[in-house]
Amino acid sequence: xxxxxxxxxxxxxxxxxxxxxxxxxxxxxxxxxxxxxxxxxxxxxxxxxxxxxxxxxxxxxxxxxxxxxxxxxxxxxxxxxxxxxxxxxxxxxxxxxxxxxxxxxx
Length: 106
Prior knowledge:
Layout: E1 2-9, H1 15-32, E2 36-42, E3 49-56, H2 59-70, H3 73-86, E4 93-97
Antiparallel strand pairs: 1-3, 1-4, 2-3
């Protein structure tokens, strides 16, 4: 099992709009495709920073779920364009993290 820690940078002054869109559209859509969203955070020290975490059983599951979500017509034509508008995508940082043997997240 591993986690994806995804740090995004919202366009200046648009983080609240981004959080609403994530919570009302993106997360429900992705969970409907089988994704496990573990957490969602705002960065207390960066007014445009946002972090969320997803969990995958293995790489095969991640690939399957990515295809189900990101190759979906709704993502490509409706959700994706809004994401592109709200975020500075080139500032995204995605970290794959594997829990240590005694981590409570195992």
